[in-house]
């Protein structure tokens, strides 16, 4: 009988892909099958995120719960960004944890499994050319890493400390992985990196041809049978005209762009070391919309960064009103260890922070209602990927709207034209017209 693996994944898409990589290694090399049932598991992995503070507290209470519920012989491994940043501390605080594996050391899962109390968290470890075995949670959409680490120094962000310096994965490996995914039925690929449009800045081998992100997109779009390419996250600073124009004219690239604003105030952006101003951001949105009018734009915003005044916050609101983002991920600033901003003393009052977040989110909802109303009666080409409750099947339009229709699993992995019949904030409902 095969051994059972229970894995919980927190955080971003990159973490989801890391989990797939670990599952692949454990299946092929160690004979594990996944289970949804913690009590049955021989190995329990938690793939953690440390981008904000809350999930770190949650980790230890969750580990306590795992310990109570697990089989006596089951091992527990803590992986991912919190593993990188807390390291040995995790075993000190939770001595029943068997090993700790950092976000940059995923390929060592087979090794740490057999060494009790192993802590592998080297952020200089280079696994950019490691050949992982294949495993995908979805056969319709393939997540593919194009780089590891991050070279930026945003003053609020812990990621460069958990994932190390940025190294691009060679384009031939990416293209081969995409081809394999397409051969196995995926019509869409989703490229992942902390900073995708900085691709090509550094490869493991200095002899590697200088391929930039725009060129990588061109090469990938030649793969026959591949219909859609998405990616996250691009950095507004690196959105040059060449990239935006390729994005607009390449029919395989989905017309949905994530543009993490973080703040609309040029003063705060400078304190964050984001490398662009409010004007640059608005200029890039304008350029993008001028060549690609139907593009949907999503963003990340942090409110109450140290020193954020009412005027600074008003700048963020101004950008929101001008851009009318289709989707916003908004957060209260959370001081993180080993970051520059951790030492900033001009902290914003907690009540002010909460009020700003609430205001921003309600404004976004108002703007969204306005945006969504215009979709009623429109037709979108939808790629179906999920079977929902009550005989609904859902998927995404090219511009990333989540759309559901009545239907069954025959629709999964298929494209259909769908006319929108009713509007919700996060999901639209429609009927198939072709
Ligand atoms: N506090 C709050 N939000 C943060 N993010 C990153 N670091 C922090 C922090 N210290 C947000 C940013 C980023 C998203 C993934 O998480 O908006 O784009
Ligand atoms: Fe992803 Fe950042 Fe969280 Fe790490 S800290 S899992 S890179 S969101």
TrEMBL record:
Keywords: 4Fe-4S, Cytoplasm, Iron, Iron-sulfur, Metal-binding, S-adenosyl-L-methionine, Transferase, tRNA processing. [4Fe-4S] cluster 2 binds at residues 150, 154, 157. Its EC number is 2.8.4.3. [4Fe-4S] cluster 1 binds at residues 12, 49, 81. Residues 3-118 form the MTTase N-terminal domain. Its main location: cytoplasm. This is tRNA-2-methylthio-N(6)-dimethylallyladenosine synthase. It comes from Sulfurimonas autotrophica (strain ATCC BAA-671 / DSM 16294 / JCM 11897 / OK10). The gene is miaB.
